[in-house]
């Protein structure tokens, strides 16, 4: 890390950039939402089971419940006959005790009747009239699901801090919760800048570009569980930029794209350096090196580079882990090709994971947006580290 002549940090690394962004966001607050609204949110506190699952010892198969000891000799040529004394259905259990030589017809999820300890599935039974069945193999205790074998009432099952996926929401429901405590959604305002940037759907003249960054970033913010306020696009005008910043006043964070690099018209950079405060400018990464973090009055502003790949990669690598509280969790895979080394930057090269290895996607220009669709991973090559074919590399799946 070095310092700008005016004193703020420059050329920070990815971890420093994350830490500085974290320090500029409000401390996490909690709210309670219905399960249906929990997708993608971060669980604020651990959830314990209010009931056991299964709530009773039950059958895993459709068949008969009986005593295993009565059926050990059962084979296709010497079936064992049992007297059928009743039926246990899910929601309507058989209440009496089942005795030696007896069985109860039972269905998946129905409670095991008292006295029984094993199941023989319907495929292995021959009906011998309404009150007798013959078993062609022994009944098995393994086909009984014991009360609480998934989780027991009182057990802490979902730790705080987890991101709520569909499976975790289903688990929360099974634990007996209709609502979940989640971190309050961060309110993020989103602003794209640049004279040449036009809204999708409008006519495009040579030299202009459709505003793809806003679309990709808005979707990524929603995936992070944020409330997104999309501000009207601003041209390269200091006055328009200041007006837009004022509109984002109530947000926890303003995310911008464009205008942060070395050009004369990179106005966000000028505004933060000259009239705001800067927490850092430039990250030792590629793509995405020119990213900037600062404050405009009380509003934290994260300036993503305008290049489409750079903005989405910086979001993925720096912003997403901070907004969600979930660290990036790289895979380790063998390289099926060499990857370029940068002496003073960590590279996040687009790669293709296939057959358990990862290879270089090829065209790594920061304007090649299609690469982010055709590649399926970012390969992390730390500063100065050589990567040859067969070496292990860290891979972030896209
Ligand atoms: N002399 C130097 N030039 C540049 C440097 C440098 O270090 N020295 N850094 C380069 C790098 S790296 C990047 S990344 C870009 C970042 O530039 P800015 O953040 O200032 O972005 P702009 O100049 O406004 O735009 C760059 C590029 O991206 C297109 N763009 C902008 N906004 C959008 C949008 N919303 N949707 C789609 N595409 C967008 C824009 O048209 C430009 O082509 O700077 C390099 N230059
Ligand atoms: O970071 Mo720029 O992102 O290399 O094009």
Automatic annotation (TrEMBL):
InterPro entries: MoaB/Mog-like_dom_sf, MoaB/Mog_dom, MoeA-like, MoeA_C_domain_IV, MoeA_C_domain_IV_sf, MoeA_linker/N, MoeA_linker/N_sf. Keywords: Magnesium, Metal-binding, Molybdenum, Molybdenum cofactor biosynthesis, Transferase. CDD domains: MoeA. SUPFAM superfamilies: MoeA C-terminal domain-like, MoeA N-terminal region -like, Molybdenum cofactor biosynthesis proteins. Its EC number is 2.10.1.1. Transmembrane segments: none annotated. The keyword S-adenosyl-L-methionine does not apply. It catalyses: adenylyl-molybdopterin + molybdate = Mo-molybdopterin + AMP + H(+). Pfam families: MoCF_biosynth, MoeA_C, MoeA_N. Residues 189-325 form the MoaB/Mog domain. Catalyzes the insertion of molybdate into adenylated molybdopterin with the concomitant release of AMP. Belongs to the MoeA family. This is Molybdopterin molybdenumtransferase. It comes from Deinococcus navajonensis.
